[in-house]
Amino acid sequence: MKDFRGTGVAMVTPFKADKSIDFNALEILTEHLIAGGVDYLVVQGTTGESATLTHSEKQDVLSAVVAKNAGRLPIVWGHGGNNTQALIDGFNDFDLTGVDAVLAASPYYNKPTQAGIIAHYNAYADASPKPVILYNVPGRTSSNMLAETTLSLAEHSNIIAVKEASGNLDSVGQIIKNKTPKFLVLSGDDPLIIPHMALGGDGIISVIANAFPREFSSIAKSCFTGDYNEARKTHYLLVDLIYLLFAEGNPGGVKAACHILGLMENELRLPLVPVSKELIVKLENQIDLIQKSA
Question: Which domains does the chain show, CATH number per domain?
Answer without folding.
Answer: 6-227 (3.20.20.70)
